[in-house]
Amino acid sequence: MQVFITGGTGLIGSAVMPELISGGHSVVALARSDASAATAESLGATVVRGDLTDLDAIRTASSDADGVIHLAFGNDFSSPEALVQNIAEETAAIDTIVDALAGSDRPFVVVSGTPSAQGRPSVETDPLPTVGPVGGRAVTVNRALAAASRGIRTAAVRLPRTVHKDGQGGFAGLLTNIARQRGAVAYPGTGEQRWPAVHALDAAALFRLVLENAEPGTAWHAVQDEGDTVRSIAEVIGRRLGLPVQQAPIEVFGPIGPVFAADQPSSAAHTRAALGWEPTHARLLEDLELLEP
Prior knowledge:
By secondary structure, the protein is an alpha/beta fold. The protein contains 11 helices and 12 strands.
């Protein structure tokens, strides 16, 4: 099928596009810059110029596609206001895609995070939290899944706190970036809270499986590691960068500090069994060994 993808040149998208193409699909990618367009074309995609605010371009590309995967999200986490703006732009784009696909029985795969569950790893049937710093994203995802009633094969891939490749990406990548700026690897809370993780190439394989096979209105977990402690993640980063490791107030981590401090292990047992998805690439702590000092 011809698949329209937003966020196709990010860490995850640049793994998803080759996965789709190798699976026999063609890809049309939304690209907001010359550099992004060049990257998308080098990966084998056709380019539509624009960003998440270009709703006319998104509407046209979605209408012309046989399926859509949405990955794009703003990278500005510097303030609560910036995060609200990121969510508002994503919501408008997702609603536009839903309207374009309504009644077509075509697949639309959205992305969200794995939720938390009291005293256990979260599973695919656990609800997304609709309050907190990123609760607005969950509201939008839930509305997209409910659009299955409008004749769309909507599905959500829930990504863990860290999607990584070559030691980069996700919350672990944010810890690394903060460490380079501060001269120390900081972690919030006790450090015993657990973050799930997955390699970007394994996540890409799941996006293809969900696009091709998922039933309408379903959610799936792209989880390889159910939960490494934040302290263990920080210790690898510190050793690789030659920096001290220390606890820090959650305010250091900006508006998503409360998310950083939460214990949120997650399971993908149902996803593996139902879709035959089996991660094969490096786990997070192993992949972090690739960090350059």
